From TrEMBL:
Protein name, UniProt field: 4-amino-4-deoxy-L-arabinose transferase-like glycosyltransferase
This protein's record includes keyword Transmembrane helix: yes
Keywords of this entry: Membrane, Transmembrane, Transmembrane helix
InterPro entries: DUF6541
Species in which this protein is naturally found: Saccharothrix texasensis
Organism taxonomic ancestry: Bacteria, Bacillati, Actinomycetota, Actinomycetes, Pseudonocardiales
TM helices/strands, residue ranges: 6-28, 35-58, 64-85, 97-117, 186-210, 217-238, 244-265, 277-293, 299-317, 329-346, 382-399, 406-424, 444-463, 517-537
Domain of life: Bacteria
Keyword Transmembrane helix: yes
Amino acid sequence: MSWLDVVPVALVTAAWLIGPGAALSYAIGLRGLSAWGMAPTLSMLIVPLTAVLADVLGLRWSPFVVLGATAVVVVLAAVVSLLLRRIAPPRATDPRRVLAAAALGLLPAIAIGWYVLVQGVGQPDQLSQTYDAIFHYSALAHILDSGNASSMAMGTLGNVATPTTFYPAGWHGLTTLVVLSTGVPIATAANLVAGVISMLVWPLSCMLLVRQLVGRSTAAMAVTGAVSVAFTAFPWGLLGFGVLWPNLLGLALAPAGVAMVLAATSLAREDVIGRRRAMALAPLVVVACAFAHPNTVFSLIVVCLFPIATSVLRWAVRLRRAGRTGRAVTGVSVAALLFLGAWAYVARAPMFAEVRSHVWPPFETPARAVGEALLSAPNGKPALWALSLVAVIGAVVAWRLRTSRWLVAAFAGTAFLYVVTASINRPSTQFITGYWYNDSFRLAAMLPLTAVPLAVLGITRLADRLGALIAKAPAPAATVPPGTVTAGAVEGRAVEGGAAEGRAVVGRRSLLRTPTVLSLVVLAVLALATKFFYVGANTDIVAGTYAVEDVPQRSTLVDRTEMEFLPELEAELPEDALVANNPWDGSTVMLAEVSRRALFPHANIPWSAEQQYLAANLDDAGRDPEVCRAAERLGVHYLLMANRTFWPHDARNNDYPGLRVSASDPGFELLAQKGTVKLYRLSACDAGNPVTSR
């Protein structure tokens, strides 16, 4: 399957990401850019909530369930919106020129994103060679097998031997909708969902945030798309680390969430959402982001703290000027105490204890970490000099505007969190960084959330300065072309014609001096200075997690031999087979790709006593009767042995000693083999087979 073949699948993916939310956006009174910018967030409200409700009602997960739920939600929202029409009337859309600029501004974002995806991933069905991919592929396979996409039961991947736990499954539910709608393998669907999030959802969300910051600016809309996909830390950084697909989805929604807060705090310029509507939608946005990934909520809190604080302080200043200083002081104090109290509670809450406990040793000096944040080069990535310079110019602009100073402070806040994790990261700092697993990669991904609008402000300011320089140049005089002047009326017509031509030339030059055209000129210069928005560097970042080496490397999860074995594996295993496997040798991902269940669907899930016994003793099936008893209770009849090419240094590889057998071990029938990859049937446990006790 080529990339051209999967273009229709990418369009289906975009439809699932935007379609349900767009319908709901228009139903609640949003229009134009606000409707489309909020659409992915509202889609991520509908899809995971539908999955939870479908599980409660006993409905199997399918596109028809989601479409039905969307129809019901849209009708109810339209009725409520109609009843509340006087309180929150539909918002007027932006002028067509602004919408046209936004639509055209998406094109370079899609083109750049598609290039990075194609060159970085390699093939549409290429598997990610990462630790987190083991869980995500297994989760997709579990949903397709069980018909249950509820986040309330996703934490243990359907492991019947352990209690179900919560895991945010918004990304997984969406990706399985793509699989069910198109029939592509889960690896292809995962890659396309990640790509569409990066090249479409993130730019759309950034456009809405920039629109709320600068108002009806065609120039800003025209350049935001390209700028949004130029930063390495996000979205490409999360495709090159982890892979953190749920985090990618959640953070891609975050700019729209910030835009909502700007509307609620009356800090938006020519607001396209509405204060009352924003306040009503805010809790729903939080729920949507939590279903994508909970640390997105904390990312929103960090960034939105600054506009909220700005709004509170402005309110207090108004009260003080009105002679109500006591009320102002009380209000500010109460707000501060509420925030600090909530943070203190969350910092001690048991539900986040496991997340906060992750330890990542510091790897930078504080000074170097600050430099990396300013140069958009976190975690040792290449410095984005030109783009960072433009963002610094934008920071100066935002600070001078006064009403946008919160944006500079928010960037400083996110940079501070990155510096703490990269250069300090000790137990005493985990109360502020623990919600991102104390992980510098996740915190670095927050930097573009504020850097993108700062860079857009920088580009438009440079365009303004360019326009001022052009305006100082002398304008061309209206001249009469030689040889056209005769006498009398003919002479008059000739002079009039020459003046009209002069005015046309001036008009064309005036058009070229518009802010939009000048901003595009600055963007073009930036493209040259950044080697087309750093596509080479960003491609290399993505490619690092998909590369499969001919010589086994520490990062190879499923090597070429294992990939070639997949058709035979699918042919030999019944559709309902449960297969014993070591999750550290790539077998879990192989089984997920052929839609078969793995006894150990991830490398870090609590196992039952029976699972632990088989992990240690399955190779004794021909000698130990307890092995067959445990296998029968679990329903295990097969063993897949794959190549150990992933993290061989990790001690957890040794937790499954009983899952390596040889030809001399009785009780195992070899069904298929390619190199050292082998599929066995557990023949020792067949009815009537004698088992020799040890």
